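Notes continue from the previous slide.

Worked example: a multi-chain complex. Inputs as given:
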Amino acid sequence: MAMLEVKGINKKFGKIEVLKGIDFELNKGEVLSIIGSSGSGKTTLLRCMTFLETAEKGKVFVDGNCVFDADEQKRVGSSELRKRQLNFGLVFQNFNLFPQYTVLDNVCLAPKLLAKDRPDFRVSKKEIYAEIEENAKKLIERVGMTPRIDMYPCQLSGGQQQRVAIARALALNPKILCFDEPTSALDPELTGEVLKVIRSLKDGDCTMVIVTHEMNFAHEVSDKIIFMDEGVIAEQGTPDILDNPKTERLSAFLNAFSQ
Amino acid sequence: MFWEVTLNLLKGFGTTCELFALTLVFALPLGLIISFGSMSKFKPLKAVCKVFVWCIRGTPLMLQMIVIYYGPGLVGQWAQGIDNPSMIITWLAGWTVFDRFIAVLVAFVINYACYFSEIYRGGIEGIPVGQREAGQVLGMKKSQLFFKVTLLQVIKRIVPPMSNEIITLVKDTSLARIIAVYEIIYAGERFIKAEGLIWPLFYTGAFYLIFCGVLTLLFGFIEKKLDYFRS
């Protein structure tokens, strides 16, 4: 069964229709890359999935459960909304680490706050926090940031900040991890280290959706590619479509890219 | 003579400090409430707050003090002159002038709360949207987002404009003299009438200088404490 099902997502900003009915499915452990030129709606799609924008129409299912239904969205309470939100993790283009916290605290903050809702929190606060920190340290190790665990974001390079942001998103164990152009704010030489981390996540069984402009990376890491153009999915398929595009629009896009 | 003057001025300075401290105690939280109001998505509340801030910032503090001091008494007098008073009118008829110090304090609190609210608003709106979005996708509640993510960043941003405003407050307390609250300027002035001495009035400047000097050091310390991160 599909891990992620997106059905008929529509989104307008004022009168402009940015998404015109988006449908796709993704299986557990698969990596989906969304490509397309700027303004094609790929970031908006990701933001609709992660509830940063509210779509006017459509549904989203995770693991068979409906997490978003545009028709009944207004009736969903804020605590239920937060619970549903946690199905998704999101890594931002410009990292958005919390500047006043160290690397470790950035990763620990959200899990610690969530732990307060646990019924056994009062009794075993220390154990819970210790467990969260232990887990955070493992994640920080996984993204290769252990030597800088006590540093503040302003002391890190962009690539390092993005690796911490990935660890922070992983700390809540999302079913689907989303990346919004994770390397677009980075120098070419820093891009590699971030892509390496994302690649390593694929070897686990992380289900991922990546909005990217890195064609080679998308080709290499993805199980599925979606090409968006003017608010619709113009072409989708295996990474093969990057070599043999069926539509004119995709081949034009790829041509523009290789020049 | 010098000691006598100093002791007298210290007495006045006590009132100055009291006015200063109480204004901060009430105006700092009230300003936050007003700033939330003026950022509210509920349009009528937003409009009320904006107009209120406009009125308070658009008129002199001295005038506000006078209105608050004499206003209630005038309302009371007017209400007493009305025949067949209703419940409300009878209640209004009971209004008399405030205690001088209370009137000044109320005027200061309202005035400074409005200035603070604009500083808070600038600080809160200056936090990048990404911070809120990051907290949101990490499942934080609105209150957690405010206290754990936004607040310290806001504080860091508003320390310089706040220290400016608070140092202005130290000197603005001298306006209380206008309705005869016995603060330090008043204390200094009395020596002109009573003894023909003007230097005690000049001497009050030293008190202000020392007070502001201490505050400057304090704010410098806070700024330095928050220097460990950049937002």
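Summary box: The two ends of chain B are 54 Å apart (CA to CA). The mean pLDDT of chain B is 89.
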